[in-house]
Amino acid sequence: MFSRIKEDIKSVFDRDPAARNTFEVLTNYPGMHAIWIHRLSNKLWRNNFKLIARLLSTFSRWLTGVEIHPGATLGRRFFIDHGMGIVIGETAEIGNDVTIYHGVTLGGVSWNGGKRHPTLEDNVVIGAGAQVLGPITIGKGGKVGSNSVVVKDLPAGATAVGIPARIVNPNKDSSSEKRDEVAKKYGFDAYAVSADNPDPVAKAIGRLLDHMHLMDNKVAVLCKEINQLGGEVCQEALPELRVGEFDEDEKAAAKRRESHVESFDPEI
What structural domains does the chain harbor? Predict the structure, then answer.
C-alpha cells in the first residue's frame, strides 16, 4: 500500500510543477485523497460490502469534491489535478498514467445494465470540463480538449475538441514530430501545435516551425561544405529562447501604458 502511495506522490511531481514537497502533496491534493479512499471502497465493493463501499465513496465526495463510484477501475499513477466536480461512473475503466482535470465527467448515456461508462487507456489526458460519455474507448495517448463532449471512440494518439468532439489530429505525421524537435531545440514546448489545429495562431506557429526546420537543414549542409573547404563556421551553439524574457518585456510595457493613462488629464 505504501509503495503505491509513494508512486502516486512521484507522479504528482512529474505532472504538476506547483508541487513543492511530499507533505504538501499528502495534505493539499484532494484528487490524491479521492484516489486513496477509492482503493479502499473498491476492495469493499469487490468483496460484496457494497453499502459500506457506497458510504465511503459518499464521504470521499463530501471531503474532496470528487465522486468516484466504488465499482470503477483505476490504473497506476492516475492523477486528478484540482479535482472539484469530477464524476467517474461505476463501469469506467482507467489505465496507467492517466491525467484528468477538474469538472470532468466519465458518464453513461443509458440506464441499461452492463458496461455503460468510458474506458481510458494508458497516458490519456482529459481537459477541464470535458464530458466523456458512454461505453466508448479513448485510445492510448489520446487527448480530449477542455469542455469537449466525446460520445465516440478516439483512436490512440489522437486529439478531440468541440461539441460534439471531433478529431483534429488523427495521426501524428513526421512533420509534426519535426516541429516538436525544432520547438525543443529553440527552448519552448509546441504542445497542441499541429497542422489541423483549429487555433489560427497555433497553425501559424506550426508553419514557422516548418520553415525553421527547413532553414536549419540548409544552413547545416552549407556549414558542412564550408568547413570541408577549410573554413570555420557554425561553431557556436544556438542561443536558448527564454519565454520568460518576453513576459518581463510585456509586463514592463503594460506598466508604461498604465503610467501614461494615469498622467492623462481629460480636461486639457
Answer: 2-167 (2.160.10.10), 174-263 (no CATH)
**Cell triple for residue 222?**
552549407
pTM: 0.61
CB 106 within 8 A of CB 92: yes
For residues 125 and 110, what is the distance between their CA atoms, to the nearest angstrom? 24
Whose CA is closest to 240, among 204, 189, 187, 193? 187
How are beta strands 105-107 and 99-100 bridged, if at all? unpaired
Q: Which three cell numbers stand for residue 174?
A: 513526421
Q: Taken in order 48, 52, 55, 61, is the CA torsion positive or negative?
A: negative
- Residues 6 or more apart whose CB falls under 8 angstroms from that of 84 comprise 30, 65, 66, 102, 103
Q: Could you tell me which of 110, 106, 112 has the C-alpha nearest to residue 137?
A: 106
pLDDT in tens, 220-257: 888 888 888 888 887 777 666 554 555 555 566 666 65
Count of Cβ atoms closer than 10 Å to residue 86 Cβ: 26
C-alpha cell at 147: 469542455
- Residue 149 · residue 166 · CB < 8 Å: no
Nearest alpha carbon to residue 125 among 101, 99, 157:
99
Query: What distance in Å separates the CA atoms of residue 231 and residue 209, rounded to the nearest whole number?
Result: 29
> Do residues 93 and 120 make contact, with C-beta atoms less than 8 angstroms apart?
yes
List, for residues 29-69, the tens digit of each pLDDT value: 888 999 999 999 999 999 999 999 999 999 999 999 999 99
